[in-house]
Amino acid sequence: MPELPEMEAWRRQLDEPVAAFPVAKAGPAHIATLKTFDPPLAMLEGRRFRGAERRGKRLLFPTDDGEVVLLVHLMTAGRLRFVPAGDAAPKSPAFRLEFAGGAQLVLTESGRKKRAGVWLLTPDAAEVELAHLGPEPLGLGPERLGEILHGESRRLHALLRNQHLIAGIGRAWANEILHAAKLSPYALSSDLDDEEVARLAAAIDAELERGLELREHGASDEQTYRVHRGLGEPCHVCGTPLAQVDFEEHTIYYCPTCQTGGRVLKDRRLSRLLR
Ligand SMILES: [Zn+2]
């Protein structure tokens, strides 16, 4: 799933082109993709976007007259593309916007399950839709992070991915951040001391900035991730083969030397716990 670095790189790329021309035709949209019907999509036609904004992992396209906001959540397999005028566009995307002049904004989703979503909302309704999200992780700082960590006792990997607490980090960047902070994914948030909180705050900024810079330059997953999906590869810090463990519905990747004092983490899949 694209996370903050990927979505922010996309936002920067889309900001100018989506505002260049008014929308000529909004839709069609797959019935499972379009989550709202009022206001109707046709309301976008003839209006121009102010640009692209982002909140957590979601992209927002407000119209420049302040009337409506198009909100896009790509989930795991959704992909948003800007297709310049004259270029070939996908034939039956999950959602399509055509601009005056012929350029298109197209959402596609691989696989049969349609999970990505598009909402057309008034600015007030958009605020309500986003109200459950925690603060943005970039620049969060040790003080605010400390309050979140000590506010409830959760395992660090799960806490970082919880969008209600911090919005924008998923499993890939949680792996990268915890490795950079030299903290166990299973450590309890309430157990962290001030020095560990400061280390985690610094790692959040450093890793997300690193990811954003790489993604802005078009880096692939392999070029971007140093820990995520790296089972058996040498840790880039100490050379120990990276390990993996299943936790809830996710696979966590970590370095046993850098992060867990040599301990191998135990499987905590939900399916296993329920047996
Ligand atoms: Zn290591």
Structure description:
This protein is of the alpha+beta class and about 280 residues long. The chain folds into 2 domains: about 5-130, N-terminal domain of MutM-like DNA repair proteins (Alpha-Beta Barrel); about 140-275, Orthogonal Bundle (Helicase, Ruva Protein, domain 3), CATH 1.10.8.50. It has 10 helices and 11 strands. The chain has helices spanning about 5-15, 15-20, 125-130, 140-150, 155-160, 170-180, 195-215, 220-225, 255-260, 270-275; strands at about 25-30, 55, 60, 70-75, 80-85, 95-100, 105-110, 115-120, 245-250, 250-255, 270. The protein has a 4-stranded antiparallel beta sheet with strand order 1-6-7-5, with no helix packed on it. Strands 2-3-4-8 form a 4-stranded antiparallel beta sheet, with helices on both faces. Strands 10-9-11 form a 3-stranded mixed beta sheet. Strand 2 (about 55) and strand 3 (about 60) form a beta hairpin. The longest helix is centred in the last third of the chain and has 23 residues, at about 195-215. The chain is elongated. Bound molecules: zinc ion (ZN). Zinc ion (ZN) binds near residues 235 and 238. Zinc ion binds near residues 237, 240 and 257.
